[in-house]
Amino acid sequence: MSRSLAPLVVALAACPASPSTKPSSEAPPTATRPSAPLRPEEGKPPSLPEPWELRRRAFRPPEVPDLLRFHGWSEDGRRFAFEVWREGQGTRCSARAWLRVVDASNDEFVGRVDVTHPEPDGDRCRRADLEAQLAWERPRLLGAHGIVVSPSPPVTPKRDRDGLFTASGPSGPLRFELEERYTTDDIYSREAEKGAAFRLTLHGPGGARIIESGTRRRRGVVGYRLDPSFLFVGPREAHAALLLVRMDRAFEGAQWSWMASAFPLAHPK
Description:
Layout: E1 9-13, E2 52-53, E3 67-74, E4 79-86, E5 96-103, E6 108-116, H1 127-144, E7 147-149, E8 158-159, E9 165-169, E10 172-181, H2 190-194, E11 197-204, E12 207-213, E13 221-233, E14 239-250, E15 253-264
Antiparallel strand pairs: 1-6, 2-3, 3-4, 3-7, 4-5, 5-6, 8-9, 9-10, 10-11, 11-12, 13-14, 14-15
């Protein structure tokens, strides 16, 4: 890393999940508290294959979402990694990115990297600077969890005549039903600040089961959508990850972002 990257701040964790670890469904709408800047790197970062990336050109304002990348799965099909990039709003240096590794067996974070800038009012910050730092941290975190980067495309659930979102699964159709809770039309109200929740039901082989209970409110989140959403099935077809839209309260209205709901494909006995 060159000297120009010294002001960057990175929060990094690659250890197993602890009781305080946030579930995968709560990638924060704001960056985590910064740690001390890392030491400058020498040379070039390790190269990785290109991951799957959402093509945002298909979207139109104000519904242009944050950039989404899905890196891949561990060989045992239990862990996966996704990455979100957010452009700055309100201040010149408020762009940030977060990378998450998730254990799909219990839908919990097991590794995370957050990249932001400690001087949001600075006059010398670029998104390329953040990417340069993340280029070092990305291979470290993915390697620590055995993530194999692959550009394999997901399945995109489509709305069916019953209003559910259906995708093909390894053992038959998977139908997702989403119910928003605690939403409000005034996204700047105190009630909106408490955050919305959602209930996610999976109708698939073996019957219906609840993936998300609908009781957990996420601060600053004002809504959720399955249109669009992306379903990634892991190796051995044991687990899956559904990436869905999460609408965050932002400086200029609701900003479309992404979150993951992970689950075993086999119905619990």
